[in-house]
Write a structure and sequence with these properties.
The chain is 48% helix and 11% strand. Helix 2 packs antiparallel against helix 3 and helix 6 runs antiparallel to helix 7. With 269 residues, it is mostly helical. The termini are far apart. The longest helix has 26 residues. The chain is built from eight helices and seven strands; from the N terminus they run ααααααβββααββββ.
Length: 269
C-alpha cells in the first residue's frame, strides 16, 4: 500500500470520531441528525480530503500520518470549542479552512525544500524574534493572563503560532543536514575545538580508518589518538571518536551544538 493510500485510510478511520462527537452534541441539544446539523464535521472532512488530493499530487512522498492526525485533532478541538464557546467556533472553523488553503499554496509554491533549508538559521532567528515580539510596546498586549498577542488596529494574532512552524522547520533542516555528525557519541560539550585537546567536534569527511601503523583502530574507538609523522593524516583526539584532517591544510569542522562551522589551524609535522 502506498503512502497516499495509507493517508486516505487513516482519514477514513479518523472521520467517525469527529462525526460522532458532533452527533453527540446535536442529540444532546435536542436536534435531529441530518446533513444540516452535521455540516461542520462533514465540511472539515471535505476540506482535509481536498488537502489529501493536493498532497497526493504535489508531495507524493510526504509522511502519511501528519494529515490524518491534524484532521482528528482539529475536529476534536472545534467540537469542544463549539460545545463550550459556540460564538468562537465559527472563527476557529474559518481559520482552519484558511490554514488548509495556506498548506496547499505552500505545497504548490515551495517545490524544493532543499533550497528553503539553506535559510534555516534565518528562519530560526525570525522565529525567536516572533516569540519575543509580544514584549514590544504599543503592538504587544496581554490577554487571558499572558502577553502573547500582537494587535494591529482591529486585527490581533499570536506570533508564537507562526514561530513554532519556523523553529520546527529549522530543527528538521538542521537534523537532516547534520545527521551523520550528530550520530558521533561524545562525552564533552563545548563550542570550541582546541588544538591537540579534547572537544565535541566531528569531521564531516575523514577516512574510516587511520592509515598509520600506530593508528590501526576505527575512528569510533575510545582510545586516545595521536599525531604521527609517518602518515599523511593527523589523528586528533575527539572524546570517544577520532577526528582527522590532512596535514598542511585546514578542513571544516562542525560542533554538534554549534551554529557555525569552525576552521581550526592544521597540524604540521
Amino acid at each position: 500500500m502506498t503512502r497516499r493510500n495509507i493517508e486516505l485510510m487513516l482519514l477514513l478511520i479518523a472521520s467517525p470520531i469527529v462525526i460522532v462527537l458532533f452527533a453527540m452534541m446535536v442529540v444532546t441539544g435536542g436536534q435531529e441528525l441530518s446533513f444540516n446539523t452535521l455540516g461542520v464535521p462533514l465540511g472539515i472532512f471535505a476540506a482535509f480530503l481536498v488537502a489529501h488530493i493536493a498532497v497526493r499530487l504535489l508531495a507524493p512522498a510526504a509522511d502519511p500520518a501528519i494529515l490524518p492526525i491534524s484532521f482528528a485533532l482539529s475536529g476534536v478541538g472545534i467540537a469542544f470549542v463549539t460545545r463550550i464557546v459556540p460564538d468562537l467556533a465559527v472563527n476557529q472553523l474559518l481559520w482552519l479552512f484558511i490554514g488548509i488553503a495556506a498548506m496547499i499554496a505552500t505545497l504548490a509554491v515551495v517545490r524544493n525544500l532543499d533550497k528553503l533549508a539553506n535559510y534555516k538559521y534565518t528562519l530560526m532567528i525570525v522565529g525567536i524574534l516572533l516569540l519575543l515580539s509580544p514584549m514590544l510596546p504599543v503592538i504587544g498586549y496581554e490577554s487571558g493572563g499572558g502577553q502573547l498577542w500582537l494587535r494591529f488596529g482591529s486585527f490581533s494574532f499570536q506570533p508564537g503560532e507562526l514561530a513554532k512552524i519556523l523553529i520546527v522547520f529549522f530543527i528538521a533542516a538542521y537534523l537532516a543536514a547534520n545527521r551523520e555528525m550528530l550520530s558521533v557519541f561524545t562525552w564533552k560539550v563545548g563550542p570550541l575545538c582546541p588544538r591537540g585537546g579534547w572537544g565535541p567536534c566531528a569531521c564531516r569527511a575523514s577516512p574510516p580508518f587511520c592509515p598509520s601503523s600506530s593508528c590501526g583502530r576505527s575512528p569510533s574507538s575510545s582510545s586516545c589518538w595521536r599525531k604521527t609523522s609517518a602518515s599523511p593524516w593527523c589523528c586528533f583526539p575527539c572524546s570517544s571518536s577520532c577526528c582527522m584532517w590532512p596535514r598542511g591544510r585546514s578542513s571544516t569542522w562542525w560542533c554538534p551544538l554549534g551554529l557555525r562551522p569552525l576552521r581550526p589551524w592544521p597540524f604540521t609535522a
